[in-house]
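Hi support team,

I've been running sequence recovery on a batch of backbones for a student project. Most finish fine, but this one hangs at about 90% for roughly twenty minutes before it completes. I'm not sure whether the input is malformed or the queue is just slow. I've pasted the structure tokens below so you can try to reproduce it. Let me know if you need the job ID as well.

Thanks,
M.K.
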């Protein structure tokens, strides 16, 4: 959901669905932009969880997992579905599924110092990135970055995950393991270009059975004006901008 055109006054009514802890945390942000993004992301997550489970959006509360990944609960019971949040300058995103997954979104106009690539990327990834035309290396960096973020968020390890233990083939997106005992064929990744301004990636270990269908939607901000009733209509449109190969 794009939030770059929203003011604090626009999102203030949404905060009624948040709990006291979330409202207090939102208030601690120094800049209005960060307060808007935090409120929008958490309300969007609650609405998505409500739509997936049938519980009212205001009834969820969240607990940090072992490595800090939040878990949604209703009272003392797990909500029965997993979610993942990502927000960056001007965009908030949430993914909901019955299995663990990771999501990342980044602005394509982000200022990138390509000299830091060696800190985060494996030699195979750096070779691919270096082979791109200079004008496209920033975009290539974000293609890699969002995929790697999606993986470490899916595992729940975050930045405790050794980044040199895996690398990505960018198109079609596929993970390769070096020092991690895992099956790359078990993992699935997708990327989308959002409005030509943001790069997003989602990743998950495919559950047994038929491959799950991944559906991407862009939600309009007015969708969050509802009270949180999971039956309330959400204004949204499909996102079909699958990103292709780079050269």
């Amino acid at each position: 959901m794009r939030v770059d055109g929203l003011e604090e006054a626009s999102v203030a009514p949404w905060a009624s669905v948040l709990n006291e802890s979330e409202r207090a945390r939102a208030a601690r942000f120094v800049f209005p932009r960060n307060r808007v993004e935090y409120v929008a992301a958490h309300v969007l997550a609650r609405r998505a969880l409500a739509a997936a489970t049938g519980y009212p959006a205001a009834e969820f509360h969240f607990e940090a997992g072992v490595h800090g990944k939040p878990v949604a609960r209703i009272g003392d019971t797990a909500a029965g579905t997993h979610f993942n949040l990502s927000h960056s300058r001007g965009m908030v995103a949430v993914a909901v599924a019955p299995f663990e997954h990771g999501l990342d979104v980044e602005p394509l106009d982000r200022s990138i110092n390509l000299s830091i690539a060696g800190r985060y990327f494996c030699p195979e990834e750096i070779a691919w990135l270096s082979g791109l035309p200079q004008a496209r290396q920033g975009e290539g960096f974000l293609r890699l970055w969002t995929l790697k973020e999606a993986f470490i968020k899916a595992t729940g390890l975050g930045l405790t995950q050794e980044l040199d233990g895996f690398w990505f083939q960018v198109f079609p997106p596929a993970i390769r393991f070096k020092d991690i005992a895992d099956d790359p064929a078990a993992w699935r990744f997708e990327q989308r270009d959002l409005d030509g301004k943001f790069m997003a990636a989602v990743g998950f270990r495919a559950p047994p059975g038929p491959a799950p269908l991944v559906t991407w939607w862009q939600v309009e901000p007015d969708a969050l004006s509802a009270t949180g009733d999971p039956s309330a209509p959400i204004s949204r449109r499909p996102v079909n901008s699958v990103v292709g190969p780079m050269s």
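--
Follow-up from support: It reproduced on our side and the slowdown came from queue contention, not your input. The mean pLDDT is 87. No action needed from you.
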